[in-house]
Amino acid sequence: MIARTSIAAVVFALCVSYAVAEEQLGVTVYPGAAYDQGMTTVLKKSPSVEGAAYRTEATLAEVAEFYRKQGLLFLRVGDPAKERARFKKTDTGVDVVVQNPWKDPRTGATMKGTLIMIIRGREE
Q1: Phi and psi dihedrals of 109, rounded to 5?
Q2: Cβ distance 95 to 88 under 8 Å?
Q3: Residue from 18, 21, 17 nearest 92 by CA
Q4: What is the 3-state secondary structure of 53-94?
Q5: Are 28 and 70 contacting, i.e. CB atoms less than 8 angstroms apart?
Q6: Does the structure show a pLDDT above 80 at 71?
Q7: Three-state secondary-structure class, residue 14
């Protein structure tokens, strides 16, 4: 019974996390990306932005191509084939920042995989 409750809690948390990006911010999460609670907490502590973070083993180029196909405006931030790319959903002001590799601000460690941050400036 405890195992079922734990599994249900995890599934619920994942559904809620996708809902944050998709319903509240209006941007589709890259398919198969995993919600990153730690990086989302870092974002939530920021007084200037709100949003959610996700990780995937897909390459930066694959993730960047996905967001280009979503119709987001590509803003060049570095070389998208190497380290990072940034997109903007112009009608809502939401940004999607994609990085690989990326540095964990909590530990300073360089992380593998692609980090996706879907963010919007906080309204004052």
Answers
A1: -75, 145
A2: yes
A3: 21
A4: EEEECCCHHHHHHHHHHCCCEEECCCCCCCCEEEEEECCCCE
A5: yes
A6: yes
A7: helix
